[in-house]
Design a protein that fits this description.
By secondary structure, this protein is α/β, with parallel strands linked by helices. It has 2 domains: about 1-35 and about 400-515, Immunoglobulin-like (Sandwich); about 40-255 and about 315-340 and about 365-400, Alpha-Beta Barrel (TIM Barrel), CATH 3.20.20.80. It contains 10 helices and 27 strands. The protein has helices at about 70-80, 125-135, 150-165, 170-175, 205-225, 240-250, 270-275, 280-290, 340-355, 390-400, and strands at about 1-5, 15, 25-30, 35, 45, 85-90, 110-115, 120, 140-145, 185-190, 230, 255-260, 315-320, 360-365, 375-380, 380-385, 400-405, 405-410, 415, 415-420, 420-425, 430-440, 445-450, 460-470, 485-495, 500, 505-515. The strands form 6 sheets. It has an 8-stranded mixed β-sheet, with helices on one face. Strands 5-6-9-10-11-12-13-14 form an 8-stranded parallel barrel, surrounded by 6 helices. A hairpin with a 5-residue loop joins β21 (about 420-425) and β22. α5 packs parallel to α6 and α6 packs parallel to α8. Residues about 5-20 have low confidence and may be disordered. It binds alpha-L-arabinofuranose. The site of alpha-L-arabinofuranose has 9 residues, from loops.
């Protein structure tokens, strides 16, 4: 539900100009430090898990699907997220996945048991279908290779199938399958959570992983030296991450970490705090990245491909909320969780945290897009958007390309949580600013004072976009959409600052246009 309020007067809507100072103050100074926010921060992840792919984005013989069996109702919703990067096919499932099963005529593709998540994978949604889906949504593809039951050579063949341009076997096979042009897959993951002992992975020991990962990287880069490699790291085992960076730093474009918020109980405080703790994960990873040479020197020409060109960044290539109290329990491999408005607030907190750590995050992919821990849910008759869709879409839509450091003053707590959580972004030309401000407090409105350092910068206009819901427990389903959107617009020179009122449990985007 969208309410739009256009105001030329000063006291309408949610804000007041030059009003009494309120509890929390943000000072915007255009000369403060700016940091690029990777556009790849808004990526997503799909896996052969439950109904994410089959029955989610892809469904054969469905009236809702097109000739390629892409569910059109789902596609439209995925397109709404404006996803820049899509990771596939896992996840843990890659431990037994063979990519050759998912190419060529569909009726000749082998059916395999999904040994990791259960069910059967008929492999009808394979490499080419994934690439077509990426094209349909305008996302760059990101493929993850099997290091457990497959070889480095098999992974290199996949690179050749996808990217090969010469008259060679795997490139020709792609052409035979109807794809003359290469798929140009740049992003590749070398394994997934290889440290995880219960998984059907081989490695677990970091030195074993490093030895194998080098072989994978070498063979894959010999096929295409321009690949961007994500190697397995973790913020739970710094020794593992440190060793990977020490030994593989020259070819590691991104070091993977997975961040799932797993609240211990049903309280909203616990949920928000479970996201807050990730601040600590970034604080632990930052020094490791700083210790890794920014520029690779003395890389042997005998590798026959160049080293990485940019400093290593983190790939948060799985992040999300795994709330065992919300619809499905431990060991439920379908993971069809229900997300209420409190979860949407937690997602806002998550993305604010990413923005505050933009200097070390190269990419992030939400796990997962449809049905599994997901913003989009389906049944055979249709699809609906869970509450968490709102922040995932809105941050992508409103946040600008650079992070702008801001000064924050004042404190207002509810329980142990700071009520206001704010971050700022700015356009490349410095003419537009967007503040993403959460009022996490579920019961109290919060006053927010905005000040422009030195009063120098005049703002030409301001728009306040507010997302809220009737209660923290409110959920969307096939019959109802509880999330409310309100827009308040003001055109006015704002030189001396202004005060805003923020609704309880609201996600706010404050768009400011700097006057020439
Ligand atoms: O996203 C679900 C699973 O969570 C992924 O397969 C795995 O990588 C992670 O543990």
């Amino acid at each position: 539900m969208l309410k739009y309020i256009w105001s030329a007067l000063l006291l309408l809507g949610s804000w007041k100009v030059n009003a009494q100072s309120s509890g929390y103050k943000i000072t915007i100074d255009l000369t403060e430090q700016r940091t690029e926010i990777s556009p790849m921060l808004y990526g997503h992840f799909i896996e052969y898990l439950g109904r994410c792919i089959d029955g989610g984005i892809y469904e054969e013989n469905s009236e809702l699907a097109d000739a390629r069996s892409f569910r059109m109702d789902v596609l439209e919703k995925v397109q709404g997220l404006d996803i820049p990067l899509l990771r596939f096919p896992g996840g843990t499932v890659i431990k037994t996945y063979h990519w050759e099963d998912g190419i060529g005529p569909k009726d000749q593709r082998p059916k395999r048991p999904n040994l990791i998540w259960g069910g059967v994978n008929d492999n009808h949604f394979g490499t080419a279908e994934f690439i077509e889906y990426c094209k349909e949504i305008g996302a760059a593809p990101f493929l993850v290779v099997n290091m457990s039951t497959a070889t480095a050579e098999e992974a290199a063949n996949w690179v050749e199938y996808c990217n090969g341009t010469e008259d060679t076997y795997w490139a020709n096979l792609r052409r035979e399958h109807g794809y003359e042009e290469p798929f140009n897959v740049k992003y590749w993951g070398i394994g997934n959570e290889e440290y995880a002992e219960p998984d059907a992975g081989l490695h677990q020991d970091v030195d074993f992983y490093i030895k194998d990962a080098w072989q994978f990287v070498k063979l894959m880069k010999l096929q295409d030296p321009s690949l961007k490699m994500t190697l397995v790291g973790t913020s739970h085992d710094l020794h593992w991450s440190k060793r990977v960076l020490e030994e593989m730093g020259p070819v590691c474009d991104f070091l993977s970490i997975h961040l799932y918020a797993i609240p211990a109980d049903t309280s909203y405080q616990t949920l928000i705090k479970s996201v807050e703790t990730f601040e600590n994960d970034f604080d632990k990873m930052r020094p490791l990245l700083a210790e890794t040479p920014q520029v690779v020197k003395d890389f042997s020409p005998w590798y026959r491909f160049p080293p990485r060109e940019e400093p290593v960044k983190l790939a948060v290539d799985e992040w999300g909320i795994w709330d065992l109290n919300s619809g499905a329990g431990k060991g439920d491999y379908q993971m069809e969780y229900t997300y209420h408005w409190g979860h949407a607030m937690a997602v806002g907190k998550f993305i604010n945290l990413f923005m505050e750590n933009a200097d070390i995050i190269g990419l992030a992919t939400w796990a997962q897009t449809v049905n599994v821990l997901a913003p989009i849910m389906t049944n055979e008759k249709g699809a609906f958007l869970q509450t968490i869709y709102t922040p995932l879409k809105a941050y992508r839509q409103y946040v600008l390309p650079q992070h702008l450091a801001i000064k924050r003053e004042g404190e207002s707590l509810f329980g142990e949580v700071q009520s206001i959580d704010a971050t700022a972004s700015i356009s490349q030309d410095g003419k537009e600013i967007v503040l993403a401000v959460l009022n996490l407090d579920p019961s109290e409105e919060q006053g927010l004072e905005l000040d422009f350092a030195g009063g120098g910068a005049a703002m030409e206009w301001l728009e306040h976009i507010i997302y809220s819901a009737p209660s923290l427990d409110a959920v969307n389903d096939f019959n109802q959409q509880v999330v409310e959107e309100e827009k308040v617009m003001m055109k006015k020179n704002i030189r001396d600052g202004l005060n805003l009122q923020l609704k309880p449990a609201s996600i706010n985007f404050i768009r400011l246009k700097v006057r020439d």
